[in-house]
Amino acid sequence: RFIMGVDGGIALSALPMYLNEISPKEIRGSLGQVTAIFICIGVFAGQVLGLPELLGKESTWPYLFGVIVVPALVQLVSLPFLPESPHYLLFEKHDQAGAKKAFQTFLGKEDVSREMEEVLIESRVQRNIQLVSVLELLRSPSVRWQVITVVVTMACYQLCGLNAIWFYTNSIFGKAGIPPEKIPYITLSTGGIETLAAIFSGLVIERLGRRPLLMGGFGLMALFFGILTITLTLQDHAPGIPYLSIICILAIIASFCSGPGGIPFILTGEFFQQSQRPAAFIIAGTVNWLSNFAVGLLFPFIQKSLDTYCFLVFAAICLAGAVYFYFVLPETKNRTHAEISQAFAKRNKTHPPDNTDPGTP
């Protein structure tokens, strides 16, 4: 469990950063959403393999942990053959030929002059800039609101209450009259909804943008958490109310995976220039896992004190997040780093670096 935790912490920082750096800005959001899509696929696969007919019996459940050996080995064998990030090759290794070859491999075409020029312009501006430490990034006034927004986004990602939903799922399904032996099969619907919503987000994110999906996702979660509180409070008063609770649970899961489930990792890569990006992902990952730990530690006490009204706490967090993103978050769709920095410049009260070629008139 310790090793798996270390791997999860590294992967949720390294993978989004890698995807951000290898993606043309036109598909940066869609490719970044792959992280969330495969997390959902993993959850769904675990639910399927955990069925009693497969590996969910008392005698076979330990083998379920062995299943992860397969994707781990596939990754271990395939990763050495993947090209390094062109940004890393250019900024850290100063290998322009290697960066060009990596772009050609990723994009499947010979002419990558436009993509190379975008990276070269940023490289010229940051020629003498060293990697920024976490403390330096936290102290930098030029990215203050980018850092604050990443912290808020990652905190909302974990504190929005999705993990708490799983605590209630089986009891709500039982209240709806579903026999206990059938509940694992009904629970598959939650994993299916997660996967479909994440795929939907990946398909529309470049058309709708990050802001609408993030604000809409958290806003809908707040709404359905409020309705769920009402249905849980009244579930013993009418036979059909538990079914409304099930609908609310599925709606909350779909709302989360259609935006908030993947966009926080995309934004972290888009907000910061190459020298700042590793420190930014360290901050994002730390807030992410600390918030996850806080939910796991505090939710049993919140649930015991407030009972079904505990979901109002999560509704308030989701609503606060949606309001924050409405007033603070600029749209980053199809924008370069310089354009995103310019969007934050007024709030930061600084002038962003001019990412243009000094030799160009």
TrEMBL record:
GO terms for molecular function: D-glucose transmembrane transporter activity; fructose transmembrane transporter activity. The lineage of its organism: Eukaryota, Metazoa, Chordata, Craniata, Vertebrata. It is a multi-pass membrane protein. It comes from Mustela putorius furo (European domestic ferret). The keyword Transmembrane applies. It comes from the Eukaryota. Belongs to the major facilitator superfamily. Sugar transporter (TC 2.A.1.1) family. Glucose transporter subfamily. The chain crosses the membrane at residues 31-49, 61-82, 147-168, 183-205, 212-234, 240-267, 279-302, 308-329. It is found in: Apical cell membrane; Cell membrane, Sarcolemma. Keywords: Cell membrane, Membrane, Sugar transport, Transmembrane, Transmembrane helix, Transport. This is Solute carrier family 2, facilitated glucose transporter member 5. InterPro entries: GLUT, MFS_dom, MFS_sugar_transport-like, MFS_trans_sf, Sugar/inositol_transpt, Sugar_transporter_CS. It catalyses: D-fructose(out) = D-fructose(in). One of its GO terms (cellular component) is sarcolemma. Residues 1-333 form the Major facilitator superfamily (MFS) profile domain. One of its GO terms (biological process) is D-glucose import.
